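Write out structure tokens for DUF1295 domain-containing protein.
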Amino acid sequence: MNWSLLLLCFLLFILIVQAPAIRRLHSGRDAAAFYGIWTLTVLAVLAEQTKLPQFRPLDWVRSIMELLS
């Protein structure tokens, strides 16, 4: 089993476990931040698996934070 597949399984587990807690917060901004960063992380892992060029981690975190502020 490679590390990318293990990381994707872990990210899916985190989504399943944390989604109810995020919904209970009733905060659209927090939900957008969580789902946005989760989606970007999954896309980065998939891009790494397929050997596509990708953003550096701080670049995509900064882009999400700019959208939310």
